[in-house]
Amino acid sequence: MTPQLMQGNEACAEGALAAGCRFFAGYPITPATEIAEIMARRLPQVGGKFIQMEDEIASMAAILGASVGGTKAMTATSGPGFSLMQENIGYGAMAEIPCVIVNVQRTGPSTGLPTQPAQGDVMQARWGTHGDHPIIALCPSTVPEAFGLTIRAFNLAEKYRTPVILLMDAMIAHLRERVDLPPSDSIETWNRAPTEVPPEWYKAYENEPRDVPPLAPFGDGYRYHITGLFHDEHGYPTERLDEIQPWIRRVFGKIERGHSDIIDCETDSYLDKAEVIVIAYGATTRSARRAVGLARAQGTRVSLLNLRTIWPFPEEQVERAAERLHCVIVPEMNLGQLALEVERVVGRRKVVRINRADGQMIDPDEILKAIERRGLDRGYR
Amino acid sequence: MSIGRAIRHPESRVHERYLRHSKKFPNVWCAGCGNGIVLGAIIRAIDDMQIDKNEVAMISGIGCSGRLPVYVDLNTMHTTHGRALAFATGLKMVRPWMKILVVMGDGDALAIGGNHFIHAARRNVGLTAIVINNQVYGMTGGQYSPTTPAGAFATTAPYGHIEQPFPITELARAAGAAYVARSTIYHVRELQRFVAQAVSKNGFSVVEAVSYCHTTFGRQNKLGRATDMMRYIQDNSVTLEEAAQMPEQERQAKIVRGVLVDRDIPEYTQWYDQVIARAQAEVNERGSR
Questions:
Q1: Is residue B4 part of a domain?
Q2: Which segments of chain B are extended strands (E)?
Q3: ipTM for this model
Q4: How many contacts, defined by CB atoms under 8 Å, are there between A and B?
Q5: Which CATH number goes with the domain that contains B229?
Q6: Left (φ > 0), alpha (ψ -120 to 50) or beta: where does A213 sit?
Q7: CATH number, domain A268-373
Q8: Is some CB atom of chain B closer than 8 A to the CB atom of A49?
Q9: Is A116 within 8 Å of chain B by CB?
């Protein structure tokens, strides 16, 4: 363990390198630029490659191209760039190409407040590209988590052959905290499954027997087709229902069946005796943690559920945590996005939302007050 | 990297070795379309060069041209509209030994993909861009494209087009491409030769293949059938040498064929190797101190 003082963006870049990322394509945007700057310096040191593309559309395309070449690849951006990337994120989901997209959220819409933190891209991370598609999104609430979750993002991308979004925010990205870097040989990294059959038998989109068929790198002798059209097991375009439907079942199924592996929530030992629970993610978890600590010191039985995975939504974990309780507090730096999911799972009447989307952090006092009221005066703000 | 190297049987024909016969044939193109001619020129060029098929990738965007790669037994990728060059840039950077052909239409390469086109040229990434110029959006039914001539009719220009067309080759030259050539689907042997030269070029190369769309552009502009449009190309194209003898006004009306740019400038991925060497030398220096 080497203790270091690190910025969130730096921890993210170092996490990517530790995970085996060897290609980065990006476009400058505050508050994510440091990731590109660090990657530009660090990648060539380890034999990797960095490129600053002409825009975020191209950056997203380039990382998909690099990943098809067999290299772990990442891009990093903020809201305006994330909007531009949506088209090719959909391509990645459709063509099942592993990659990591870091979105350091700032206040939007449009140019918004450059660059105050926000959590306004929660729903965009889930539904930003057109059409139904599987997606994974992780949210770090500390600088060490930014390091660890970036590694995890790569592992999940490789394991499930899908784009993974690391949904940071400007607060965590620019925060400096102590990070105890683990020795590199103790870091668990996952590489995409190797092809096990000769080229003539290879099917890049085989539905059976596995959910996640191996993706052969271009250039290794497995000549096949990749497309954004619906495709058969070989990757050739199809409009046949008997080829489309198994694909849909497999691609959504691989994420669904992986829930217990993908979903990562941090809870505490107070959960069993809690009267109130705060469900938070990202920067807001920090305010929530402070508020929960203060409330406990006053004798309130309150617990915190920190969602490190937000997509797929941790339904079971939220349901289990909240089932006995009458009050679930969901603070978010938006006007109520993940609260919609919590409400879907636990019922609207239990949920107290605390929202702001003006670029300011949610004050722990505000959460503390909500805890003290235990939802008795709940209502929409 | 030698698995599946294309074995040359003198008696077997090129299409038998390069097309995915059992797959998605017949193709999607209209009878009389130039896309198949361009595809033929590309695979014959690859065959002549005797490159290992495993080391060739063909990447496309969206439109009628976007469907080219699916038919070819190479590493093929049909990407999003206009973005093919950006996907190809990522692939080229991590697999620099691969020969990557990027097939695009005029709308794909120059409208929605115009930014990627000029920047790929500026960086001089070792890719070969083949732009099939039929002067119209064919797949969507005949809307004006960035190469539609002023005065022409299109479904979105029902009163006549009022924009100037993009000169593809001049754009590529100005943006920094290492090799730029233009030929047509009538001059198929020449087109094949230019494709081979472009693929061999160490740097960003562009081949404009002048084609037509009789189904949409031809119909709306009363230019006759596919054969009539082919004849127009035959009658109205001149070589660079012929063009040089012509008065300016006459030349303007012609399709000028030939190699327009061929220059040696540092290729991006090779230049990047120097970045890696510099970065690693710096690390080693620091380590030894």
A1: no
A2: 56-60, 75-78, 99-105, 128-133, 136-137, 143-144, 179-184, 205-210, 237-239, 255-262
A3: 0.96
A4: 152
A5: 3.40.50.970
A6: beta
A7: 3.40.50.920
A8: yes
A9: no
List residues of B whose CB lies inside 8 A of any A CB.
Answer: 1, 3-4, 20, 23-24, 53-55, 57, 59, 69-70, 73-80, 83, 86-95, 97-98, 115-116, 119, 272, 275-276, 278-280, 282-283
Residue B182 lies in a domain: yes
Q: Say yes or no: A52 contacts chain B, CB-CB below 8 A.
A: no
Question: In the prediction, which pLDDT does A381 show?
Answer: 40
pLDDT, mean of residues B66-73: 96
pLDDT band at residue B3 under the 50/70/90 scheme:
very low
Give the residue numbers spanning the domain of B209: 14-288
Give the β-pairing of A113-117 and A99-107. Answer: antiparallel
Report yes or no: A135 and A94 within 8 Å, Cβ to Cβ: no
Q: Domain limits of chain A?
A: 2-186, 199-260, 268-373
How many CA within 13 A on the CB side of residue A352? 21
- Element holding A37 (H helix, E strand): helix A33-45
Query: Using the beta-carbon criterion (under 8 Å), do A225 and B89 form an inter-chain contact?
Result: no
Predicted local distance difference test score (pLDDT) of residue A378: 55
Q: Enter the tokens of residue B130.
A: 């083949």
**Other C-beta atoms lying within 10 Å of the C-beta of residue A270:** 16
A53 contact B CB<8A: yes
For the stretch A32-50, pLDDT in tens is 999 999 999 999 999 999 9
Cβ(B154)–Cβ(B161) below 8 Å? yes
Residue A210 exposed, middle or buried by CB count within 10 Å (0-12, 13-18, 19+):
exposed
**Section B14-28 average pLDDT:** 85
* Pairing verdict, β B143-144 and B136-137: antiparallel
Q: Spelled out in words, what is the top-level CATH class assigned to the domain A2-186?
A: alpha beta
